[in-house]
C-alpha cells in the first residue's frame, strides 16, 4: 500500500486558489492530477458528474471536500491533489459548507490507497494538524506536515474524557457495519477509518468489522450488517434497506461517530 506522501506529491499541492464555484474548485484539483500524470481531463469531468448525480456528499467535514469518482480508464495511476481556496465556495451541503479545502483522489482500484486514506483521516481529524495545514505558507511546508512533521498534538475530536467505554457486545457475537458512499473508494474509506478509531478505543475491534462500499453494493450487503453509516445525501439514495441507516455529518470526527455508534448499540 502507498503512503500519503507517495500519492500526494508537492507538485500536486496549490494554495490560495481562486474558484468561482464548486465546479471550478474541483476543476482546479483535477488539473493538478492531470499535470502530475495521474489522470486525463476526462476524470475531472467524472468527478463533477459524481456530485451532479449524487449530491454534495463529498463534503466530508466542515470546510473540506473530498472529490473523486469511480476507477475508470481516465485514471492513469492512483494519485491525489490538494487545493486550498483563497475564498470559500458553496457545494450545497446542509451543514459542512462553505468549502475552503478540496482534496481529490484518483484510484485505479479500492485497495492501493487505503493506508493513505487512513493517514489523511487522522491528520484532518487532529485539530492541531488541521490548523497547521490551514496555515501552511507554501506547498512545501504543507507537504512536510502531511509527511509527518506534525505540530504538538491538540485534543482529539472525541467525546468527553470521562465518557465510559461501553461493555463488550454479547459474547461470541461478530458484527459488521457498512460505511457507504457513491463509489466505495473515497469518502466511505474516510468514515471507515474514523469508525475503526472509535472501535479501537472501545476495545470492540475484535467484535465489529467495518466494510467500505458503494450504494449499489450496500443494498445487496445490508442484510449482513448491524447498521450502515453514511452521509445524508447517500442515505436518501439508499432508502429503506432493512437495516438502520445512520447519518454522519463530519467523517473526520471521532466524537460524532462515537455518538452514532452508541445510538446504534443503545449504550
TrEMBL record:
Q: Which UniProt keywords apply?
A: Cytoplasm, Kinase, Phosphoprotein, Phosphotransferase system, Sugar transport, Transferase, Transport
Localization, UniProt? Cytoplasm
Q: Where is the PTS EIIB type-2 domain?
A: 175-266
Pfam families, sorted: PTS_EIIA_2, PTS_IIB
**Record domain PTS EIIA type-2: where:** 6-149
- Keyword Protein biosynthesis assigned to the entry: answer is no
Query: Main location per UniProt?
Result: cytoplasm
Q: Give the species.
A: Streptomyces asiaticus subsp. ignotus
What name is this protein filed under? Ascorbate-specific PTS system EIIA component
What residue spans carry the region label Disordered?
149-170
- Which PANTHER family has this protein been placed in? ASCORBATE-SPECIFIC PTS SYSTEM EIIA COMPONENT
Report the domain of life of the source organism. Answer: Bacteria
The UniProt entry, under CDD domains, shows:
PTS_IIB_ascorbate (cd05563)
Biological role: The phosphoenolpyruvate-dependent sugar phosphotransferase system (sugar PTS), a major carbohydrate active transport system, catalyzes the phosphorylation of incoming sugar substrates concomitantly with their translocation across the cell membrane. The enzyme II UlaABC PTS system is involved in ascorbate transport.
Amino acid at each position: 500500500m502507498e503512503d500519503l506522501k507517495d500519492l500526494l506529491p508537492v507538485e500536486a499541492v496549490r494554495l490560495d486558489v481562486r474558484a468561482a464555484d464548486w465546479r471550478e474548485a474541483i476543476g482546479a484539483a483535477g488539473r493538478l492530477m492531470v499535470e502530475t500524470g495521474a489522470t486525463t481531463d476526462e476524470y475531472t469531468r467524472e468527478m463533477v458528474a459524481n456530485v451532479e448525480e449524487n449530491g454534495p456528499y463529498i463534503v466530508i467535514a466542515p470546510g473540506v471536500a473530498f472529490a473523486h469518482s469511480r476507477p475508470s480508464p481516465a485514471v492513469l495511476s492512483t494519485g491525489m491533489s490538494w487545493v486550498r481556496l483563497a475564498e470559500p465556495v458553496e457545494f450545497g451541503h446542509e451543514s459542512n459548507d462553505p468549502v475552503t479545502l478540496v482534496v481529490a483522489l484518483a484510484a485505479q482500484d479500492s485497495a492501493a490507497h487505503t493506508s493513505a486514506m487512513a493517514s489523511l483521516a487522522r491528520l484532518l481529524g487532529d485539530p492541531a494538524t488541521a490548523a497547521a495545514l490551514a496555515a501552511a505558507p507554501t506547498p512545501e511546508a504543507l507537504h512536510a506536515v502531511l509527511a509527518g512533521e506534525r505540530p504538538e498534538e491538540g485534543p482529539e475530536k472525541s467525546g468527553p474524557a470521562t465518557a465510559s467505554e461501553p461493555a463488550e457486545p454479547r459474547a461470541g457475537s461478530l458484527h459488521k457495519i457498512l460505511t457507504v458512499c457513491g463509489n466505495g473508494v473515497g469518502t466511505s474509506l474516510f468514515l471507515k477509518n474514523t469508525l475503526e478509531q472509535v472501535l479501537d478505543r472501545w476495545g470492540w475491534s475484535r467484535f465489529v468489522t467495518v466494510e467500505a462500499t458503494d450504494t449499489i453494493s450496500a443494498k445487496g450487503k445490508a442484510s449482513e450488517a448491524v447498521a450502515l453509516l453514511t452521509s445524508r445525501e447517500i442515505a436518501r439514495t439508499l432508502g429503506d434497506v432493512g437495516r438502520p441507516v445512520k447519518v454522519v455529518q463530519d467523517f473526520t470526527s471521532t466524537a460524532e461517530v462515537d455518538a452514532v455508534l452508541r445510538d446504534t448499540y443503545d449504550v
